Amino acid sequence: MAKLVSLAEGVADLVRDGDVVALEGFTHLIPFAAGHEIIRQGRQDLTLVRMTPDVIYDQLIGMGCARRLVFSWGGNPGVGSLHRFRDAVQNSWPVPLELEEHSHAGMANRFVAGASGLPFAVLRGYTGTDLPRHTGNIKTITCPFTGEVLTAVPALRPDVTVVHAQRADRAGNVQMWGITGVQKEAVLAAHRSLVTVEEIVDELEPVPGQVVLPSWAVTAVAEVPAGAHPSYAQGYSVRDNDFYVRWDAVSRDRDTFREWMEQHVLKAEVQA
Amino acid sequence: MAKLVSLAEGVADLVRDGDVVALEGFTHLIPFAAGHEIIRQGRQDLTLVRMTPDVIYDQLIGMGCARRLVFSWGGNPGVGSLHRFRDAVQNSWPVPLELEEHSHAGMANRFVAGASGLPFAVLRGYTGTDLPRHTGNIKTITCPFTGEVLTAVPALRPDVTVVHAQRADRAGNVQMWGITGVQKEAVLAAHRSLVTVEEIVDELEPVPGQVVLPSWAVTAVAEVPAGAHPSYAQGYSVRDNDFYVRWDAVSRDRDTFREWMEQHVLKAEVQA
Amino acid sequence: MSAEYTSDEMMTVAAARQLRDGTACFVGIGLPSTAANLARATHAPNLVLIYESGCLGAKPDRLPLSIGDGILADTADAVVSVPEVFNYWLQPGRIDVGFLGAAQLDRYGNINTTVIGGDYADPKVRLPGAGGAPEIAASCGEVVVVVRQSLRTFIDRVDFVTSVGYGRGPGDRERLGLRGGGPRVVITDLGVLEPDPKTCELTLTRLHPGVTVEQARAATGWDLAVAADLAAVDPPTEHELTVLRALEATKKVAAR
Amino acid sequence: MSAEYTSDEMMTVAAARQLRDGTACFVGIGLPSTAANLARATHAPNLVLIYESGCLGAKPDRLPLSIGDGILADTADAVVSVPEVFNYWLQPGRIDVGFLGAAQLDRYGNINTTVIGGDYADPKVRLPGAGGAPEIAASCGEVVVVVRQSLRTFIDRVDFVTSVGYGRGPGDRERLGLRGGGPRVVITDLGVLEPDPKTCELTLTRLHPGVTVEQARAATGWDLAVAADLAAVDPPTEHELTVLRALEATKKVAAR
After folding, report:
1. Are residues A258 and A147 in the same domain?
2. Which residues of C are catalytic?
3. Which of B22, C116, D93, D245 sits most deeply, having the most CB atoms within 10 A of its CB?
4. Measured between beta carbons, which residues in chain B are less than 8 angstroms from residue D56?
5. Considering only CB atoms, which chain A residues are within 8 Å of C139?
6. What is the pLDDT of residue A43?
7. One of D52, D135, D201, D240 is an active-site residue; which one?
8. Does residue B231 contact residue B176 with C-beta atoms inside 8 Å?
């Protein structure tokens, strides 16, 4: 059964130096507050995993938390590039960043394999692209019935997955809706999981399009209102699109970036 | 885009002698009315596919429509055995019935592979059982990353899948909820599909737990109120449990069975 | 003092007692479902019931009449697709206990629910088949079997291995790569059998009140091993019986 | 008479015209999303828009600001998981048209959105990467590319093949086992290119009003083939421009 914890406790207990960490979310429900807490607690040497690393990964990378990124699309959604990500790849600043690069279809299926307790997934993907030349773990597999050659990718099993959801009940059952991306699979694929939620309620009223993660499939739940800002939580908030545009300017320059992080993340009041 | 048709038209257009036909449903939403129409139209030589063949398959088999059954559990749910199915297997009455037998996990994954455009699926299944000795299309596959040996089953691609759902709108978008089993996968895996619905409405109001099949993924939709009876349609009807108990007695004897079918199916008034 | 009770009631109560509170249990229909719901209504209120129809955490207030009963969906924490229940929930080993019935059971806890007698292509009796059982037996943390004991069901070697117990003996599960622990206990209308830790052979470890070793032996198609410290099962408590009978009554009402 | 318009507006209008009513279109964000929504608001009201965030049949009444904009989920026929959109919807070839952008494009319609210059491990410019594009390019019935034409983007050989067009020429898609038809048309701010049926090489088939062949050649990093029957694109109609500008205005409002 999931434990109800504070965000600081949850990160302290579940995210460790050197871990493979997935903070998943697909534009919607990005776990920004949890990412900030990881930065405040000074985690290092992380392998960050995510289909769509965006601004929170730019921040984690720029603060030197990560040594490796496993991903399929790294950008500022609707705006452009991630400058801290670029600086790390192009100039090894502040530390070198290894890349393991896939397509969305490949990453999604790697999470599915992890969630399914299988060592690999099969898909039609990557064929003819230059990705397999640079990404070691893309292989072929032959159908034992038809002889057709398909692509195989290994399961993703993060040490810990962190996601944000709209609600949980006091027993720790988690409910999310709207665009839910690959979050269910990412939680089920992980050895441990931390879910931040907009609010903890007495009863989870069913909602169309909901995804429910039963308490016994989640390690810990923390109530963090607005924990997805500047991303959004459908039914609770709208996306702060201005923030994403402003981030482009903030993140271009190393000093501006450090100052911004100092002021808005490192010195931010931490929930007890 | 799905065509709105009558049940008789839908079956006449989409279900052909010799077809591989899946009438899917998991206790809930069993397409009984469509099965009856297939019997009335005298289809023969069908390969019937379903995870849980129950009373409607007992009827199709007893009326000689099928020459082959692909399945994982054939019984009268909550009651016991299927006597027409038994009679066909044990005594070839009224015609011999070939079996291709799987587990639920295997069948579900075969539909998933079919829906996914893959020739096969990988699972942990069947190992150590006697099923692979009698079912030819269960093979092993080796993980190209770990060397682990797993099980492979081929995709299921029915010629036509028939399911029952609660509602469709006038554009042919289909909505179902409650226990939805493997119906989405069965429809997406098939070359053609026929969906019977309790009612056709102007607008599909979202419902918690809903599965929506967009109109362009469905071939035809027929309005057939109570089309799942004696099974049920959550929100519309409850299961006629008495019927299932009575079926045990009706179906034990060949003559009683034929009389019952004559009276309740063959002579039933057909919707135009 | 306990009230009068039937051997089926004793069996169901003994089976229910096997389920620990807070665990997740993959429930087959029939006896397993009755026992699991009895456990939830008595000592294990937080038992998580999982049905192969896709209902996770079902909390029915009456006995479901089938594995796809609407009451399961209505009361579940989540209703998922059938592929999902097998792939995301059963296969990775998330379910603590698999709760199965059997048409035939052998000394190594292998289960047959496929065909009896003759050969596969021309059987004496055609049974419903595997359903979810092979993978439940393979992947759950452990398996609890509930089955009435008789020479018809307890046979030396099952006619068809639908679901693997301990195969042909020690080491077989590991060799096959099955990741769950296999049958931990078999509950019958006569008593309780558990696999011998060394031989994996099902051994009579407890008898229900009033049942003798001779009766158990007479209902077993192999030379039944009996534990040195053979114990007696506690009879059903008044509370267990009251709750069980109330549950059974809901079934009759629901069927109307 | 048409009103004044920009070359980007011409490009978007020309791209929108490529989408036939009643087809299903897998939409990338940016220019493709604008063009697809313009098509839906003009000649193709029943165009089915599919976004990789899992929104099937989205009907936004303003331009989405990202691929996961809430308006897409709010107006979709169904919102499915990301694994499902790729596995059940894209991979089996259910989507008629894939609508993609590009950072670099070569003469065979291969697309690069990964790295520019240097080598992969030490690139001159690190781009966002593949996203859904490789499988969109592989599995959709056909692909429409929208991209501004310049020596920076239209190069003889892309630095990295992120998404396959016609590979290195005729027969390559078949040899690779790609089941979709590949790039049917490339729409730029200068005109329209289509693959030569024999050589698969992108060939200039139409020019936007006021653009010359010389301008197109000067913006192309290979020796650009020009169709014998080179035609002119119709300028945007008043209606197309009005609707496009109204859509763009909603984007600015939504961003506040």
Report:
1. no
2. 52
3. B22
4. 214
5. 117
6. 98
7. D52
8. no
> Across chain C, what does the average pLDDT equal?
95
D48, D77, D88 member nearest B188 (Cβ): D88
Q: At what angle do helices B241-252 and B83-91 cross, to 10 degrees?
A: 30
ipTM above 0.90, yes or no: yes
> Are D93 and B115 an interchain contact pair (Cβ–Cβ within 8 Å)?
no
At residue B269, does pLDDT exceed 80?
no
pLDDT of D118 > 70? The answer is yes
Spell out the residues 6+ positions from residue D245 whose beta carbon is closer than 8 angstroms to its own. none
Secondary structure class of D70 (helix, strand, coil): helix
**Residue A201: pLDDT band with limits 50, 70, 90:** very high
Nearest to B208 among A121, A146, A208 (CB): A208
Over chain B, what is the mean pLDDT?
A: 97
pLDDT above 80 for B270? no
End position of a domain, from candidates B154, B188, B219? B154
Please tell me the total count of domains within chain B. 2
Cα(D33)–Cα(A76) distance, integer angstroms: 16
Q: Which of B141, B150, B210 sits opposite A208 (nearest CB)?
A: B210
Cβ separation B137–A119 shorter than 8 A: no
Q: Which of B120, B166, B167 to mutate to test the interface with A (most CBs of A within 10 A)?
A: B120
- CATH code, D7-254: 3.40.1080.10
Which residue range(s) make up the domain with A146? 104-154
Domain ranges of chain D: 7-254
Look up the CATH number of the domain holding residue B204: 3.40.1080.10
Compute the distance between CA of residue D225 and CA of residue D213 in angstroms, rounded to an integer. Answer: 10
Q: Is residue A271 part of a domain?
A: no
Contacts of B234 in chain C (CB under 8 A): 70, 73
Q: Do A39 and A65 reside in the same domain of the chain?
A: yes
Residues D216-232 pLDDT 10s: 999 999 999 999 999 99
Dihedral sign (CA B51, B54, B57, B62) = positive
Residues D190/D215, Cβ–Cβ less than 8 Å: yes
pLDDT of residue B271: 52
Cβ-Cβ contacts under 8 Å, A150 against chain B: 118-119
Q: Is the pLDDT reported for residue D247 higher than 50? A: yes
- Regarding whether A208 and A125 lie in a shared domain, the answer is no
CB-CB neighbours of A205 under 10 Å: 10
**Model confidence at A19: pLDDT above 70:** yes
pLDDT of res. B165: 98
Among A154, A169, A196, give the residue marking a domain's end.
A154
Q: Compute φ and ψ for C164, nearest 5 degrees.
A: -85, 130
Interchain contact, A26 vs D138, CB within 8 Å: no
Residues 6 or more apart whose CB falls under 8 angstroms from that of A132 comprise A126, A138
Percent of chain D with pLDDT over 70: 97
Please indicate, yes or no, whether residues A28 and A89 belong to a single structural domain of this protein: yes
* Mutation site, A110, A118, A120, interface B, largest B CB count within 10 A: A120
State the pLDDT at residue C253.
65
Residue A272 lies in a domain: no
